[in-house]
Amino acid sequence: MSEIAKADRSVGTARRWLMLALGVFAQGSSAVIVHGTPFLLPALTERGMPLATAGLLVAMPTVGLCCMLIAWGYAVDRIGERAVLVAGPLVICVAGAAAATVTNYVALGALLFVAGMGAASTNGASGRVIVGWFPPERRGLAMGIRQTAQPLGVGIGALTIPVVAAAHGFSVAILVPAVMAGLAAAACAVGIVDPPRPGGAGAAKPVNPYRGDATLWRIHGVSVLLVVPQATVWTFALLWLHRDVGLSLGAAGALVTATQLLGAAGRIGAGVWSDRVGSRMRPLRTVAVAAVVSMAGLALTAWVGWWWAAIPILVIASVITVADNGLAFTAVAEIAGPYWSGRGLGIQNTGQNLASAAIAPLFGAVITAAGFPAAYLVAAVIAVAAVPLVPLGRSGRAAPEHQGVLKN
Fold it and tell me: How far apart, in whole angstroms, are the C-alpha atoms of residue 26 and residue 150?
């Protein structure tokens, strides 16, 4: 009997889906602290803080996350998923609660950095739970659902953080992800079961999937390039809609939330698509091309002031630019295998989040100098480089239980 079949029998279908839901919740709490803090930008800039400086402050959770992704991935490979999914959200909860008590910008930045370190835990651990408990023909769907945690977290942040910050101050708004993370830690402690791993105590040590094959490195590179348009839209959409288009903060936040909900649905659709065609990489290349086209269209319509076209294109771009994450994430986990996927996913997310962390300060400076259309155009140009980098004809190794299932 295969390990997956044993896993199905040991926990049951309902328990697998419960663990998927818990992984989404834990990842969502991380997404709110990491990707929701840019929604503090209106409150910070209205206090007179330069946009580039405010961008650096709200990027601190992402910086903290980048510092710990690989370390948490190593912990997943060594001590298991459940322990990591409890410990990391607890760090977010404590650091977020402490951040709500300070008004000094330096102290706030330091606590946001620590919260980001905790947020790094959920990326690899929640992905490993899914890859470990779901069979290959369901992984695209399951991972697509798991990937909805990020846009849902952004949506929750857009809907709550600007309103709370405007009413009660930017520090109090940090309580939103802190409370979520505390609930996630408690739920994962009760509901997560570490998935079994193939091989017994005497099994040979798995080979390093990064040696002799550039497939994983190419996937990492594609993801880094494609995160630029994604993070550009996430970080500045609210500010652009409020400042250039003229929408109120409430209306702009509601629109951003709606785009994130649509983006969540798009990630599920991309996962199902990859299951149906038996490939993660062919859909990934199509998404890369679509990201280039949508961001270029957004730049053009924003430049000429065609809001009737720019707003729908923003919605489309918000959906397209998040669709690649689940495809690449699943492929990395499958190729790296159960004994390397924690570190592989850590490397994957480190590259993405390092690029994402640079978006707020660097593109904030671009917007200050040349406006929002220029920033959207730069993001489109960067995404162009991702298209030929997608490894359509890979010949790399997959973990034994994954071989022959998918042609990436």
Answer: 10
Number of separate helices (H) and strands (E) present in the chain: 17, 0
Q: Do 282 and 252 meet the contact criterion of CB atoms below 8 Å apart?
A: no
Residue type, 335: I
The single residue listed with the structure tokens 């480190």 is 350
Give the position of tokens 């994954």.
402
Residues in the chain: 408
The pTM for the full model equals: 0.72
Give the DSSP per-residue string, 135-194: -HHHHHHHHHHHHTHHHHHHHHHHHHHHHHHHHH-TTGGGHHHHHHHHHHHHHHHHH--P
Model pLDDT for residues 231-281, shown as the tens digit of each residue: 898 788 888 898 888 888 788 888 887 887 888 788 888 888 888 888 888
Burial class (CB in 10 A: 0-12, 13-18, 19+), 235: buried
DSSP state of 198: S
Placement of tokens 């830690």 in the chain: 185
Residue 251 in contact with residue 163, Cβ under 8 Å?
no
Q: Which two tokens stand for residue 306?
A: 């065609």
Cα separation, 158 vs 138, whole angstroms: 31
Question: Exposed/middle/buried for 278, CB within 10 Å: 0-12, 13-18, 19+?
Answer: middle
The SS3 of residue 136 is helix
* Residue 329 CA to its chain's centroid (Å): 10
* CA-based end-to-end distance of the chain: 26
Q: State both tokens at 207.
A: 């080979």
